[in-house]
Write a structure and sequence with these properties.
The complex is a heterodimer of chains A (112) and B (460). By secondary structure, chain A is an alpha+beta fold. Helices cover 22% and strands 37% of the residues of chain A. Chain A contains two helices and six strands. Chain A has a four-stranded antiparallel β-sheet with strand order 2-5-1-6, with helices on one face. A two-stranded antiparallel ribbon of chain A has the order 3-4. In chain A, strand 3 and strand 4 form a beta hairpin. The N and C termini of chain A lie close together (9 Å). In chain B, helix 6 runs antiparallel to helix 12, helix 9 crosses helix 10 and helix 16 packs antiparallel against helix 17. The C terminus of chain B is likely disordered. Chain B has 460 residues and is mostly helical. In chain B, strands 1-2 form a two-stranded antiparallel ribbon. In chain B, strands 3-4 form a two-stranded antiparallel ribbon. In chain B, 65% of the residues lie in helices and 3% in strands. In chain B, 53% of the residues are buried. Chain B has two domains: 409 residues, Ammonium transporter AmtB like domains (Ammonium transporter fold, Orthogonal Bundle), CATH 1.10.3430; 33 residues. Chain B contains 17 helices and six strands. Chain B is globular, with a radius of gyration of 25 Å. Classes of the chains: A alpha+beta (112), B mainly alpha (460). Chains A and B meet through strand 3 and strand 4 of A and helix 9 of B.
Chain lengths: 112, 460
């Protein structure tokens, strides 16, 4: 099994979720994240005092998939999250040793 | 004297409107601090409602409005606790004296609460409460007497109760408190900044407002309440109140534009914090002038006040003093602009019946305004510095370094304003105690040897 992790633009979550649903993934986890890559932060002004905010808000997406599906899921995420501008994010996969469904105790691919 | 029910109703409603300004101020200030100290910021306003509300009825009203001792302070004898004002004959200017007592109580509360913005994130709450009592008694009540206590006369014109020196001797025009409230609180705020010092990290670390929607809500409540503050200061439901009301609208509207204009030119953007700040700057500016300028004069005053304050708030960064929420830049500067502009923009067409410099009145009113403003500024600054210094050197006015970094909401009040992450969890201590007590009971049954350890647990 593989864990597909994606850092994407927050407003792209809906597009990516719709595309993943069409691909029949069983579930996903979304959390808020912030950081920087090539896209840097911005500046804000409060009563004339300027602040730079160095990190950019992003969404972090995690999907557990079968080894065989990993490459396709990555492709689906990349295609649906792309705007073509700096700051579109990154997608990577990591190997997963074991997965357990909490409710039933099922293990491995059955728990996905 | 007959009670006029319309006037009384307006005065009581105005008092309630002014009361709402202090919670409004709490929101306005609370949104501007970081999330770790918003409750403390708001509590400084609410705590002031507690302390000043109590001492006002005990001795504050007497010090402010008792028969004058040399124009400097009221003689509170006979007015302690206000019992002497309960009778049907306690009537002044067609309204029960107690309605005026209520109205002026709210002024004392907001004036004191205003100061707290300068010492955000770092003041001991206990010392703040003591400060409000001392400052109210030694600074606000006497200065309110100077400005708001007018000579009272009987039917023959003889003075029965003497008032303060600025209102009756100097005859500076301060309709609703540009000097007594705003210059006073602004100068006091500056003094406390010098006593307490800057926040750790001031000028180096970001100290962005954590919730600008709270700031906007606070500004809205302040404006709403301020109609009671200014129009209510007519003390009658009459034409003066209506003119003060319209001027409070016109100047404030213009000040929003003035502040935003400066921001657009200087920083490149119209900001919501700028609009909210412009509202307060305009309200402060028109406060002393609400009965002495025409609506067009109010617009001019508002634009100038908004622009002046917008520039003034950037000075603290240049000079390096941490007036955290710009009490000096908005209230001291706005109060000075409004009070001095009365001497320039006053028109005899308005109820005060005085012409300023622009209307051919010469410098006569302008110097009266300047003397009144300067006197309040200097006395408030010096007296507040002494009070603050003594409190700081005795019981301490500032929290520990670590407590400040951790955030005063948690370290002073044992609370946090927002539960943004449910997963952080909060467990009921009472439930945990009940649980460990039940466990202790079980163990007690099975093994008496464990009793010492479990009773220690329960005690903890």
């Amino acid at each position: 099994m593989k864990l597909v992790t994606a850092i994407i633009k927050p407003f792209k979550i809906d597009d990516v979720r719709t595309a993943l649903e069409a691909f029949d993934v069983a579930g996903m986890t979304v959390s808020e994240a912030s950081g920087f890559g090539r896209q840097r932060g911005h500046s804000e002004v409060y009563r004339g005092a300027e602040y730079t905010v160095d990190t950019v808000p992003k969404a972090r997406l995690e999907v557990l998939v079968d080894d065989a599906d990993a490459a396709d899921v990555v492709e689906v995420v990349v295609t649906s999250a792309r705007t073509g501008k700096i700051g579109d994010g990154k997608v990577w996969t990591t190997p997963v040793d074991d997965v357990v469904r909490v409710r039933t105790g099922e293990r491995g691919p059955q728990a996905l | 004297m007959e009670i006029n029910s319309g006037d009384t109703a307006w005065l009581l409603i105005s008092a309630a409107l002014v009361m709402l300004m202090t919670p409004g101020l709490a929101f306005f200030y609370g949104g501007m601090v970081r999330a770790k100290s918003v409750l403390n910021m708001m509590m400084m306003s609410f705590g002031t409602m507690g302390t000043i509300g109590v001492i006002w009825v005990l001795w504050g009203y007497g010090l402010a409005f008792g028969d004058s001792v040399g124009g400097l302070v009221g003689n509170p004898s006979g007015l302690f606790g206000l019992s002497s004002l309960l009778g049907d004959d306690a009537v002044a200017a067609d309204t029960p004296v107690l309605a005026f007592v209520a109205f002026q109580a709210m002024f004392a509360i907001i004036a004191t609460a205003l100061i707290s913005g300068a010492i955000a994130d770092r003041a001991k709450f206990s010392t703040w409460l003591i400060f409000t009592v001392v400052w109210g008694t030694l600074v606000y009540f006497p200065i309110a007497h100077w400005v708001f206590a007018f000579d009272a006369t009987d039917d023959s014109g003889a003075v029965t109760t003497h008032g303060g020196w600025i209102a009756n001797g100097l005859k500076a025009i301060d309709f609703a408190g540009g000097t007594a409230i705003h210059i006073n609180a602004g100068a006091a705020a500056l003094a406390l900044v010098f006593v307490l010092g800057n926040r750790h990290g001031f000028g180096k670390e970001p100290m962005r407002p954590h919730n600008l929607t709270l700031v906007m809500l606070g500004a809205a409540l302040l404006w709403f309440g301020w109609f009671g503050f200014n129009a209510g200061s007519a003390l009658h439901a009459d034409g003066v109140a209506a003119i003060a009301f319209v001027n409070t609208l016109a100047a404030t509207a213009a000040a929003i534009l003035g502040w935003l204009f400066v921001e657009r030119i200087r920083d490149g953007h119209f900001t919501s914090l700028g609009a909210a700040s412009g509202i307060v700057a305009g309200l402060v500016g028109i406060t002393p002038a609400a009965n002495s300028v025409t609506p067009v004069g109010a617009v001019v005053l508002g634009v100038l006040g908004g622009m002046a304050c917008s520039y003034a708030v950037s000075l603290k960064n240049r000079f390096g003093y941490d007036d955290s929420l710009d009490v000096v830049g908005v209230h001291l500067v706005g109060g000075l602009v409004g009070t001095l502009l009365v001497g320039v923009l006053a028109s005899s067409a308005a109820p005060a019946g005085v012409d300023g410099l622009l209307y051919g009145g010469g410098f006569d009113q302008l110097w009266r305004q300047a003397v009144g403003a300067f006197a309040v500024l200097v006395v408030s600054f010096v007296a507040t510095w002494i009070i603050g210094f003594v409190l700081h050197k005795t019981i301490g006015f500032r929290v520990d370094h670590d407590d400040e970094l951790e955030g005063v909401d948690l370290t002073l009040h044992a609370e946090s304003a927002y539960e943004l992450l449910a997963s952080r969890g909060a467990r009921s201590v009472a439930a945990a105690r009940a649980h460990s007590a039940a466990q202790a009971g079980d163990r007690h049954d099975t093994s008496a040897a464990q009793t010492p350890a479990t009773s220690q647990e329960t005690a903890r």
